[in-house]
Amino acid sequence: YIEEGKKEGARLLAGGKRHGNKGWFIEPTVFADVTDDMTIAREEIFGPVMSILKFKTIDEVIDRANDSVYGLGAGVVTSNIDNAIKVSNGIRTGTVYVNCYDVFDSNTPFGGFKDSGIGRENGELGLRNYLEHKTVIIKRPDDSMP
């Protein structure tokens, strides 16, 4: 994704190199001048890569975020809590982090919308996926039926 971002014209601000000699780790990476049609803006990158896209209105942010087949998680960084709430309510994603990222409580469900994720994990809602519900009705000999 890093090479693809550079090839498509995004400006690499930080990172972009391998981290260490073992494994498949990369440095935290930040791209600017990213446009909606770039691969790094369209696909889920499961790694420390941030793409910065400019916007004019909050509605534009919501529309652009929803113009994706993915919806696992989103991050909103703002000093305006009203904007944070509007974006959080407007985008179709399983988790929205406001002014933080990857803060997690195991009592809350986790999972994505659209083509992201495979259901919900954690919390009471996530446990329901592992349950089977059964109804048993027994008429005892001394019960009268209506």
From TrEMBL:
UniProt superkingdom: Eukaryota
Name the coiled-coil region(s): none
Q: Which residues form the Aldehyde dehydrogenase domain?
A: 1-136
Q: List the protein's name.
A: Aldehyde dehydrogenase domain-containing protein
Q: What is the lineage of its organism?
A: Eukaryota, Sar, Stramenopiles, Oomycota, Peronosporomycetes
* Single annotated GO MF: oxidoreductase activity, acting on the aldehyde or oxo group of donors, NAD or NADP as acceptor
One Pfam family per UniProt: Aldedh
